[in-house]
Amino acid sequence: MEISDGAVRILAGMLETRSGQQLGQGRRWRIETELRPLMKARGIETLDGFVDHLVRGGEPHLADIVVDALLNNETFFFRDVAAFDLLEQKGLGRLRHARGETTRRLRIWCAACSTGQEAYSLAMLIADMPRLWDGWTVDILASDVSHSAIDRAREGLYSQLEIQRGLPVRRMLRYFRKEGEQWRIDPAIRRMVRFQAHNLVEQPPLGLFDLILCRNVLLYFSGDVRRLVLGRLAGAIAPDGVLMLGAGETVIGNSDAFVSDYEARGLYRPRLDLSRSGAAGRAA
Amino acid sequence: MKTCLVVDDSKVIRKVARHILETLDFEVAEAGDGQEALEHCQATPPDVVLLDWNMPVMSGMEFLRALGQTELPSRPKVVFCTTENGMAHIRAAIDAGADEYVMKPFDRETLENKLQLVGVA
């Protein structure tokens, strides 16, 4: 289906303004596939016609719906098995050691949780080892810019295809129940996670987090926005906290507020001399 | 190169699975039922068996039990791949010794991920 460059620019601008994310060449296919149902529901036959309808502003919430549709919510359970192994052995292991003699409290932020699989993966990882976490308070906050993704995450109900992506069968049997053709997360795992809508370019949630996961979203930002977001994360992480990015993402060239974890390649630590200035005033 | 034995009475499913597995750099062999699969495993044990549930001659569950009683130089990993998607079926397969479980229909990513989970991809 044809779409004019002008209409693409309008959609790209709307997406970037509201989410910070770019509509790169690799995501343009989403315009047709994701907007077609919205066009059909309104009896509009062309993409240009739909964009015209959008900018006229007759439907107050249509822009939110369009932005939600253009965001990529691709995710799956335990995405990148090696990364989760590393996180458990090095990241969580170190935090457990550091907090074990003091607060026995862990605050985790899944900063781009999409439809919830990553946050629930973390919750399952912790629930798998009750003896290690006995007596701990683990608070998992999961956020995403997409309201519809957060609604789905809160629901904790997944299709057969989704449930099979990344989730070992034994964990599926332990933590899910079948409802018709879908699979429902165990209520105890559901209760471990709080979900809220949040835009990464805005101020982070209050308090300092021991572990922040911000995976597979930085790649959708421009360099400037990437630097802004990493600055926000630096202000939200505890001085001895752990940052985990996606497999193809790095802080190198994007932020000097974090350094690679020399004990665990793929994890990052805040650079203490830089990261505190933004955090001190907000610490809970 | 890792080897995979695809056990399914449907030629179409075997063809689809073979295509996916070959893109994942597996050497693929096929069997149309559990008995044929057991004979193949005795002669040349693969790294992994992709196993259907309902088949003539010998079902997937019967194959799995027979495999457990067969002496082999190395036991292949077994991934059930079936339309049986009830929890009771899945639990029974795992209790009988299956390493992973794929519910049909499946896509390349799902299969690749399950093969990673059992350590052969």
Spell out the key features of this protein.
heterodimer, A: 284 residues, alpha/beta, 2 domains, 3-stranded antiparallel β-sheet, disordered C terminus, B: 121 residues, Rossmann fold, 5-stranded parallel β-sheet, 5 helices
Provide a concise account of the structure shown.
The complex is a heterodimer of chains A (284) and B (121). Chain A has 284 residues and is of the alpha/beta class. Helices cover 44% and strands 18% of the residues of chain A.
Structural class from helices and strands of chain B?
Answer: alpha/beta
Low-confidence stretches of chain B: none
Biggest pleated-sheet summary of chain A: 7 strands, mixed
CATH architecture of the largest domain in chain A: 3-Layer(aba) Sandwich
Number of domains of chain B: 1
Number of strands of chain B: 5
DSSP summary: helix tally of chain B = 5
The most extensive interface between chains reads:
A-B, 14 and 19 residues
- Radius of gyration of chain B (CA) equals 13 Å
Terminal Cα separation of chain A, in Å?
51 Å
Strand order of the largest sheet of chain B: 2-1-3-4-5
- Name the CATH superfamily classification of the largest domain in chain A: Vaccinia Virus protein VP39
Tell me the strand percentage band of chain B: 15-25%
Sum up the overall morphology of chain B in one term: globular
Text of the CATH class of the largest domain in chain A: Alpha Beta
Helical percent range of chain B? Answer: 40-55%
Q: Any idea how many domains of chain A? A: 2
Number of strands of chain A: 10
Q: Mean pLDDT of chain B, as a whole number?
A: 94
